[in-house]
Structure formats: structure tokens, C-alpha cells
Amino acid sequence: MLADKKYFLFDIDGTLGVDDTLYEGSAELISYIETIGGRAFYITNNSVKSRKDYVKKFERWGIKTEESQFMTASYAACRYLEKHYRGKKLFVLGTPSFAEEVRSFGLTVTEKAEDGVECVVVGFDRTLSYEKVEAACELLFCSEVDFIATNPDLRCPTAFGFVPDCGGICAMLAAAVGRTPRYIGKPDAKIVSLCTKQVCAESGEVLVVGDRLYTDIACGINAGVETALVYTGEAKPEDLEASEFCPDHTFDDINELYQEFRKSRGEA
Ligand SMILES: [Mg+2]
Q1: What is the C-alpha R_g of the chain?
Q2: Is the peptide bond before 187 cis (omega within 30 degrees of 0)?
Q3: Can you give the CATH number for the domain in which 34 is found?
Q4: How many angstroms is it from 12 CA to the middle of ligand 1?
Q5: Residues 13, 34: one domain?
Q6: Cα of 210 from ligand 1 centre, angstroms
Q7: 35 and 96 in one domain?
Q8: Residue 20 lies inside a defined structural domain of this protein
Q9: pLDDT digits over 239-252, tens only?
Q10: 88 alpha carbon to ligand 1 midpoint, in Å?
Q11: Ligand 1 mean position, distance from CA 113 (Å)
């Protein structure tokens, strides 16, 4: 039930806003969650920005946050790499910010197809060049080199439509090398538990909110919590019929969720 929710795990792009624009109702809902003693978390498959970048982005939106509220696919991937590739060389196909984040976990990063690379790590790379694509392909033709990626999203919403996201870049690589990566971000349920463990949340108190069925909604389902879909990003009402991932709640936008949540708690 909506009325029982205290911990909201929001997707960002296409859910709370797009590019630099914050949707109406986002700041109001986040502030309302605080007034009822809850907490908002931000689980995003965007691997361009680090958690620090997001704190700054939210500051520009007038929303005060802490790094611990952000669970990005790049952060989750770094936690995974830290566990499995300590002391080993990684080829990162990603933004300078992502490469820096990987390094900050004490890992060794290169952007060249050189000897000793044990894993190709792909993020949503807005600085992508064909040179990097060629280097990644060269490495991936060695079957001993592992293939890891931050998130399976095929496309990322923009003000004009969409651009290829990490999953789209990996689809291009897969077409050339015949291999698909292991994805670390949503819909993996771990990204949910990294948040809910911080506040010892009961599953009935948690709501995952997003605009995509195969990442956001699937992630909530995998984690065993309720989900809400908003129609301001990728998914459209007609997509629900064909989808194996069914949200518990659907809203036109975040403002409608805000209004309905207040109503469910007896506030107009
Ligand atoms: Mg989204």
C-alpha cells in the first residue's frame, strides 16, 4: 500500500527530471518524504556521473543530499571490481569521471589495448571515440579478457528523444566481437539492498520508482518490494501488456505520485 511507504528509491533520468530540468513535483515529494521521517535514495544506471557529481547536480536543483543517498551503477560496478580485480589491470571504456571513480577504489586503469589487461569495463560513455571502440574490440577478441558493464539500458532520454546508453554501446561491441557483458547495475537487486540496509527498512516500507520496465521495475521485483512506474521517460501505457515486469502502481508523472501519496496519508 502506498500509505505505508517511507523509503523511496528513485530512478533519476526520465523519472525526477531530464538533463538539467527537474520535473514538477520532484522536489516537493522529496521534501515531503523527509517531513514524514522517511528517506529518499537515488538508484541510477547512469554511469557518466559519480556520486559527488550527483550531490552537486541536486544542489543546483535546490535539493540537499548526501553521497550515501546515491547508488549509481558505476558505484555498484566499482564495488564489484574492487572485490574481483584488486591488483589487476582494467581497460575502462567510459567518461574520465567514471575512470576516476574506478581508480578511487584503488584499481589500475588503462585506456589502451595493452598487455596484462584482465577486464574490459564499459560505462555510458559520452566521450566515446572510435579509437576506444577499436581498442575494446581488440581486447575482447582474447577470450581470457573478461567483459563487465555498468548497466544494460539501451538508450538514455534527452530533451529531444534518446541517445545510446551503456547497453546500446555494448550492443555495438557485441555485434562486432560476438560477446555480451555481465551487467552490474539495475535490474540487479543489490543496488536496492545497498540503500535499504542503511535505514534497516522493512520491505513493505520501500517503493522503487522509475520510468523503465526492464531495469527499474524489474529491479524492484527482483528485490521483493513494491514498484511505481511513471510515464515521463521510456515506458508508455501500451508497453505494459507485452511486459513481464508489472508495476504495482502507475502514474502520469512524479507530481501525480506526490499527490496520490499525500492523499493516501489523509492529506489533501
Ligand atoms: Mg530512467
Answers
A1: 19
A2: yes
A3: 3.40.50.1000
A4: 6
A5: yes
A6: 6
A7: no
A8: yes
A9: 999 999 999 999 99
A10: 33
A11: 32
Per-residue pLDDT band for 262 (boundaries 50, 70, 90) equals: very high
Q: Give yes or no: residues 176 and 203 share one domain.
A: no
Distance (angstroms) between ligand 1 centre and the Cα of 179 equals 26
* Ligand 1 midpoint to CA 44 (Å): 7
* Ligand 1 centroid – CA 101 distance (Å): 22
**Closest C-alpha to 231, from 49, 15, 13, 79:** 15
- Collect all residues with Cβ–Cβ distance below 8 Å to 112 and sequence separation of at least 6: 91, 135
Last residue within a domain, chosen from 138, 159, 183: 183
Using one digit for the tens of pLDDT, what is the confidence trace for 78-123?
988 998 999 999 999 999 988 988 999 999 999 899 999 999 999 9
Domain annotation covers residue 240: yes
Distance CA 48, CA 191 (A): 17
Does the pLDDT value for residue 156 go beyond 90? no
How many domains does the structure of the chain reveal?
2
Domain boundary among 146, 163, 183: 183
Alpha carbon of 252 to ligand 1 centroid (Å): 14
Task: Name the grid cell of 198.
Answer: 542503511
